[in-house]
């Protein structure tokens, strides 16, 4: 994965400069830098980067909460930057499945963690999309079943005929099955 647009969120300018050099050597482009979590979040919303590195340390109190906000809102992949010796933080973050690096950073560990963060982000996004599609399918089935029941009851037809009528309306009106079924339910609920 080359040429990612990256944002750095770290209060330590020296660390940002060092990370920027390492990223540049890997072909990544740093498009923004911030000293605190809120500034990092503002940059992310404005620049829509491909990846963010955010420091979690006492000097950047909001780093952890901002990292989780970025992750929860699926704004971009996140890599946490942890201070050496903060093992309690490290184990806590490992539970949340956010990839992390321990400072001082080493070039050889950087590319694998970038690849992990980006591929994990894409996989979670894909799974969330699949979940939304499955929920929509279930909602469609429920409303179509309800509409079929209404047609069967009110028109005295069997289930197959009720479904055929919904399908026919869907094709004739160029509407989804769900939209036709919802219209049937609303129309009969008003009676």
Automatic annotation (TrEMBL):
Residues 124-185 form the ANTAR domain. One of its GO terms (molecular function) is RNA binding. Residues 5-118 form the Response regulatory domain. Gene3D superfamilies: 3.40.50.2300, Winged helix-like DNA-binding domain superfamily/Winged helix DNA-binding domain (1.10.10.10). GO terms for biological process: phosphorelay signal transduction system. It comes from the Bacteria. Coiled coil: none annotated. May play the central regulatory role in sporulation. It may be an element of the effector pathway responsible for the activation of sporulation genes in response to nutritional stress. Spo0A may act in concert with spo0H (a sigma factor) to control the expression of some genes that are critical to the sporulation process. This is Stage 0 sporulation protein A homolog.
């Amino acid at each position: 994965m080359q040429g990612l647009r990256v944002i750095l969120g770290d209060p330590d300018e020296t660390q940002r400069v060092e990370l920027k050099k390492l990223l540049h050597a890997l072909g990544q482009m740093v498009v923004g830098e911030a000293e605190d979590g809120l500034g990092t979040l503002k940059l992310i919303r404005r620049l829509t980067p491909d990846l963010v590195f955010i420091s979690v340390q006492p000097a950047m109190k909001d780093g952890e909460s901002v990292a989780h906000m970025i992750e929860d809102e699926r704004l971009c992949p996140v890599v946490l930057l942890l201070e050496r010796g903060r093992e309690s933080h490290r184990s806590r973050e490992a539970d949340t499945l956010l990839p992390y690096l321990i400072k001082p950073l080493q070039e050889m560990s950087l590319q694998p963690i970038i690849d992990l963060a980006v591929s994990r982000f894409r996989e979670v996004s894909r799974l969330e999309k699949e979940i939304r599609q499955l929920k929509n399918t279930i909602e469609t089935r429920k409303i179509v079943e309800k509409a079929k029941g209404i047609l069967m009851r009110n028109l005295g037809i069997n289930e197959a005929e009720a479904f055929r009528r919904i399908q026919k309306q869907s094709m004739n009106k160029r509407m989804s099955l769900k939209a036709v079924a919802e219209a049937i339910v609303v129309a009969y609920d008003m009676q």
